[in-house]
Design brief:
alpha/beta; Rossmann fold; 5 strands; 47% helix; 21% strand; globular
Length: 140
């Protein structure tokens, strides 16, 4: 079974790791855990002043910083995992990765925003829930 846990570095996404650890025995072994961090793309004009490799390195570094607390929790629990850092629109990237990897479930944090804020800002969790095509566990 493959499980995907999107990590944005927030306390909510770390609670998704806690949920994964609490329910790990309920999943059919072996469980393959994928941690995914999605970085926002920099504005196009930044590429005029900064080398493409530097931008890629920046995204990778920032993604690994965001993943570090989740990785530490999984390391402490002895759970093996694979870390991935992508650049793009979070919901889109998460759903695409889940499809490409044949993920059987997604466990992710959901920021408790008001309905108005979700309407205006959108919700990564809501879009993943709508589009993933696999079970999604939302953690507050």
């Amino acid at each position: 079974m493959k499980l995907l846990v999107p990590i944005d570095g927030s306390d909510t996404s770390l609670r998704a790791i806690d949920t994964l650890l609490a329910k790990l025995d309920a999943y059919r072994p072996p469980v393959e855990v994928h941690l995914v961090n999605v970085q926002h793309a920099l504005r196009k004009d930044v590429g005029q002043f900064v080398d493409h490799d530097e931008i890629r390195s920046y995204h990778q570094e920032e993604g690994m910083k965001a993943l570090a607390p989740a990785r530490a929790k999984l390391d402490a629990a002895g759970v093996t995992y694979t870390s991935h850092v992508f650049v793009g629109e979070a919901a889109e990237v998460i759903v695409q990765f889940a499809r490409e990897q044949g993920v059987g479930g997604i466990i992710m944090g959901s920021h408790n925003r008001s309905e108005l804020a979700q309407l205006l800002l959108g919700s990564v969790a809501r879009e993943v829930l709508r589009s993933a095509g696999v079970p999604v566990t939302l953690v507050n």
